[in-house]
Amino acid sequence: MALPLPPGLTPSEVAFLCEMELVTVIPRQRLESLQLLGGTTPALIPPYRNNIPLWLALLLKKQRRANISPPPWLTQNSLQAILDFENEHSSTFSPPPRLPPTSSSTSSISPISPPFLPSSTVDAPADALPYHWLELAEILLEAAPDDFEDADLVRRLCRDLRETRMSKLRAGVDVLEAGGGVQMNGVGGMEVAEGRSFITGVIDGLRKISASKEQARRERESDERENGYPGTQEEDEDML
Predict the structure, then answer these.
(1) Quick one: which of 9, 121, 165, 205 is 20 to 30 A from 223 by CA?
(2) Closest CA to 130 of 144, 118, 143, 138
(3) CATH number for the domain formed by residue range(s) 11-96+117-189
(4) pLDDT digits (tens, 9 = 90+) for 54-64
């Protein structure tokens, strides 16, 4: 008998999907275009930059056939500015990249999700974190640290940014206990995968508590009807 799978995507699965993101590379050797399931990759001709999937860029980097250009948001100044925004706004996350304007024509389909958005290329906005920001930063810092001006500083800023944003997710648990909701605008894929366990645990716990209270109330009302005792006003107010 197979074990039940956990709900949602695991962190390793999210990191695997992140490899579909387009990144910018500077080729060292000429490489003809490749026919892939997702389409044809552009021909790589040194020293011209081009955008290719992350998994292919990592392979070329490992073979020393290309360098990877970090996206603008993965620099010291951009990460520090985003971290300052996160610290100044304790209840909201930094806004995600803006979507391109949709076409008014019904026959055309406007791509609105990675890897169709240039959220991790050199043309990406510098003031917004994309959906796969955390896992992509970890992958690039591990596979291509020499392509950063100061990899250690960027790694430290990413760690501080991750801790700050995760603390906001944990703080939202108190809102759930009070019957409210958590605003998830701008939360990344890896953050959702890592925070799903304790958020869903809190929601399940609140659901069980609510169900037990409702069951106790129904049993109490049933006993009162059987005994001909309607209850007092104070008890009704306590139940409310």
Answers:
(1) 205
(2) 118
(3) 3.40.5.50
(4) 999 999 999 99
